[in-house]
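### Sample
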Amino acid sequence: MPGDLKEGRIVVVGASLTGLRAAEKLREEGFTGSLTIVGDEPHPPYDRPPLSKQVLFGEVPANATALPMRRDPEAEWRLGVRATGLDTVGKRVLLADGEPVPYDRVLIATGTRARPWPNAQEAALDGVLTLRTCDDAALLAERLAAGPRRVLVIGGGFTGSEIASACRERGLDVTVAERGPAPLVGALGGTLAKLAAAMHRNHGVDLRCEVTVTALRGHGHFTGAELSDGSRVDADVCVVAMGAVRNVEWLAESGLAAGPRGIACDAGCRAFNMYGIVTDDVFVAGDVSRFPHPLFDYQLLSLEHWHNAVEQAEVAAHNMIHPEPLRRPHLAVPAFWSSQFGLNIKSVGVPTFSDHVVIAQGSLEARRLAVVYGYRGRVTAAVTVDMAKSLEYYQDLIETAAQFPPVAGASDRPPAAEVPIPSDVPDPSVLYHGPTVALTGHLPDRRLAMMRPAV
């Protein structure tokens, strides 16, 4: 590799939000070498959040969600070609078209794909869809515009709930089947899940909780589904919203620490190899990464958030072209948002990293509130419903490890919270979809206890 890190060859595998922002950052910070961006979709980078919102509402066509470029990354774009392997010894990215791309440093930003219905024959029925790509969104929007008699949504996570909201916005009958006790419970816990369930039902959604879909039926075209409680749902369209699968299979022979939860890396976005040794020429960012965060006991976080994709992409790009003393960690507080049934839901921190929760402002009845999450006596997350201006205050509490429950502040700050109750975060295995944040790894205090020498 050239002595000057701002020269040489960099390959970015993944041509979505993370890949684009990383490429732009590389050029902004003075990288003058060759830059290649590989993407398995034929489309230039586009924005995904509108696909389950404005596109399904019929407000914006799916092909009009392209991401604006802050600057020309001056890259060679290899779109519509899939990466099939990473040769870390020969420093080559292997592609499905047979033409390898050499690199000095590589950024892995392959993200996730929609988890398919597990029965391939049933999944192939016309009318059984998923929602992840702009092509997926275009097809689903077309089916919704055709006016199906009923839509079945399997999974009550954020994607499933937003699809259900879009259906009701269009005046369509929709059934949501959720394996857990309520929609969004895997991401937000039991308190806000109660509000989510009420919102579904108040807007006319046929919400079925604590049931599984046992079979999809039809001859060529989807006609309905059978549920574990013995009931049947007749519908013309089925959207499988059972979460995401991280795109790591192509790295099976790479020697990297890649698995179903993503690719493990350090806080500077350098990938670990399978023996836990950090690499210096392989970086990872976005949905496919797993990284430690000191605010959450250094457990490895896997995030499926727009905000994280941007922040981590820029940290990775910076560290790829700077020597060790100038590298910086990815310490941004996770944040996400969702719009559904007329409500604006925003979050900071990691709600699933909690043991208790309080309603600090507003109320469930008013459908306008701020919920604060705590773990072992400190604030770890906050979620607002139609009260987004409060988030900055709660983010400060998270970043300073403020005590939980939060105390009353100055007159312009939120009042004292109610009595804490258990956060009721379920085991992801009881859900159709995982949380949007997954934490893995041992807590530092447990690890230190095991490593302490005998006296």
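The chain has a mean pLDDT of 91. This sample (Pyridine nucleotide-disulfide oxidoreductase) is used throughout the tutorial notebook.
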